[in-house]
From TrEMBL:
UniProt keyword Cell membrane, yes or no: no
Keyword flag Transferase: no
Positions of TPR repeats: 97-130
Family matches, as PROSITE patterns: SET (PS50280), TPR (PS50005)
Full protein name: SET domain-containing protein
Cited InterPro entries: Gramillin-biosynth_MTr, SET_dom, SET_dom_sf, TPR-like_helical_dom_sf, TPR_rpt
Pfam families: SET (PF00856)
Organism lineage: Eukaryota, Viridiplantae, Streptophyta, Embryophyta, Tracheophyta
SET domain mapped to chain residues: 178-367
């Protein structure tokens, strides 16, 4: 290659590297593009046969520039383009170390674990070429193997993190789709359904946020909480719009979500389009998504992170995080939920909060369901719907009972909690309310039950006139799945009895562990769960 030509290429390459190291990704990518154009122009004019040495040097320069642009592009989250660059480089030189590693990293971040593993393995087989990069390559290889295993088996272990009180490093999680399918729902529009029987505590789904925005609202500092929330919402919308414009697959997947209009008429997408591993097999249509549609979709599907992620992030109670998780967006709300969501970093895990039968719809609570019907109606209205779950249907019918309405008024009016429990239990006996429906009403009056069992004195005072705490815990958990407050009553009961329940204590302990798994998932080993529950 002519020296001047070589020098120019070298100069561009050094500048691009310098900008990359200064984290000026866009500028670095721009210089790489110049380099790529230059190499391509020289290559098309060059004659391989007459100067094979120059030709292969130019090819090498082109591959390196492509790999460098891919690196910068992946930092800018332009993953489609970055992948194309890697593929172009690998088409020229199938064993290009940098292109292989860069492609592996991109595929990994896209959740395409097995394809990523292939790239890292190929790169590892070229190790001498890696020039001392073997160590960091091994880190990537191990990470990739672990994630590939999780996404294939659904085996996640959060024990260390839980034992550390949800502090410290957030565990790395793969995306995972368990035995579920999207179908028409009796609740509303489409929903996610179990295709197999699922035990309480099983991870059903793990999905990473398309975009997330976090901050502290309220508390000290300038600007009102409401203002900060507005700014965060605006940033969040921009993030989502950025993802939509950069990635055709994301754009298509987001377009399948409900924007709240004509939910019954919405198409039922094939679940496989959400499987990152299979994304290569799908030709995602290049559709337009205007801002109004995006806003409608975000309004209906965005979720606010829960307390655990707040702890993870080391934030205080004013912490607020809003995000969009694609497949989880097909999960409807129920006041008698069978699933819970657990936020771990940017991932949302959906966990069975009780045993689920094959064919049953999965549903989690969008808001606190241990509340009476009137309160829940208000919360559903704030979400923009009238809840049509089985529990609401049943309680709607029960609203004809004046005595039940009076009991709700008595609870709100501050009547003694034990008295409210007694009245409700008596009423249920007369109205012949049984089974799950008993659990529904007890869940609605949970404040009274929780209050009564929380104090040894009041529990004693009401004695046998009200049911045993363990029986109430069972029925509420059956109706509304595991819940921290419900579990707390059982754990308190256990610690009060100090194991004095004899053989019964073991049964209750197992029950507490099962409820614990329904909250935190089987993902946690028994010992860590015991520590968490302080059993
Ligand atoms: C995140 S989406 C759930 C999936 C949605 N059904 C679909 O077809 O895409 C939330 C929307 O589903 C509907 N929805 C969810 N749970 C509901 C419930 N319990 N009762 C009535 N509508 C519900 C509401 O329209 C809500 O705004």
């Amino acid at each position: 290659m002519a020296t001047a030509e070589e020098e120019l290429l070298q100069e561009l390459r050094s500048k691009a590297t310098e900008l990359f190291l200064r984290e000026q990704w866009a500028e670095s990518s721009g210089l790489c593009s110049q380099l790529i154009d230059l190499c391509r122009a020289h290559l098309s004019a060059a004659d391989r046969a007459s100067d094979p040495d120059r030709f292969s040097k130019l090819q090498r320069s082109l591959c390196l520039a492509l790999a460098n642009r891919a690196d910068a592009g992946s930092k800018l989250r332009s993953l489609d383009e970055a992948l194309r660059d890697c593929d172009e480089a690998l088409a020229i030189e199938s064993s290009h170390f940098r292109a292989l590693v860069c492609k592996g990293k991109i595929l990994l971040s896209l959740g395409r674990y097995s394809a990523a593993l292939e790239c890292f393995k190929s790169a590892a087989s070229l190790e001498p070429q890696g020039n001392g990069n073997a160590e960091s390559l091994n880190v990537w290889l191990d990470k990739c193997k672990k994630l590939e295993y999780q996404s294939r088996t659904g085996n996640f272990d959060l024990s260390d993190w839980v034992s550390a009180g949800f502090r410290g490093e957030i565990p790395e999680l793969a995306e995972y789709i368990g035995p579920v399918e999207i179908k028409k729902s009796e609740i509303s529009g489409r929903g996610l359904f179990a295709t197999k029987n699922i035990d309480a505590g099983t991870v059903v789904l793990v999905t990473r946020a398309i975009a997330i925005e976090r901050g502290i609202v309220g508390g000290e500092g300038s600007g009102s909480g409401e203002n900060k929330q507005l700014v965060m919402w605006k940033n969040f919308i921009e993030r989502v719009a950025g993802c939509v414009s950069r990635c055709r697959r994301t754009r298509h997947l987001i377009s399948t979500l409900s924007s709240g209009e004509d939910e019954e008429g919405l198409e039922i997408p094939d679940l496989s389009i959400f499987r990152a591993e299979a994304s290569e097999k799908h030709d995602y249509p290049d559709e337009k998504l205007d801002m109004n549609k995006i806003l409608g979709i975000l309004d209906v599907n965005s979720l606010v992170e829960n307390a655990i992620s707040a702890k993870v992030m080391g934030r205080n109670k004013d912490y607020y995080g809003v995000g969009l998780w694609l497949l989880a967006s097909f999960i409807n709300h129920s006041c008698g939920p069978n699933a819970r969501r657990l936020h771990v970093g940017n991932h949302l895990m959906v966990i069975a909060s009780r045993d689920i039968r094959a064919g049953e719809e999965l549903a989690f609570a969008y808001f606190d369901v241990l509340q009476p019907p009137t309160k829940r109606r208000e919360m559903a209205a704030a979400w923009g719907f009238d809840c049509s779950c089985k529990r609401c249907e049943f309680e709607e019918k029960m609203q004809s009972k004046q005595e039940l309405r009076d009991t709700e008024t008595a609870l709100e009016g501050g009547m003694d909690a034990g008295g409210v429990v007694y009245r409700l239990e008596e009423g249920m006996r007369r109205w012949n309310v049984r089974g799950k429906e008993k659990g529904y009403l007890r869940a609605s009056f949970w404040a009274a039950y929780g209050g009564t069992y929380a104090s040894e004195k009041s529990a004693k005072r009401w004695g046998r006139r009200i049911p045993a705490a363990e029986a109430v815990v069972d029925s509420v958990a059956e109706a509304a799945g595991s819940e921290e407050r419900v579990l707390k009553v059982l754990v308190e009961q256990l610690s009060r009895s100090g194991g004095g329940l004899g053989g019964g204590a073991m049964v209750e302990m197992e029950k507490a562990l099962k409820l614990g798994r329904g909250i935190h998932g089987k993902v946690i080993k028994k010992q860590a769960l015991r520590a968490l529950l302080e059993l």
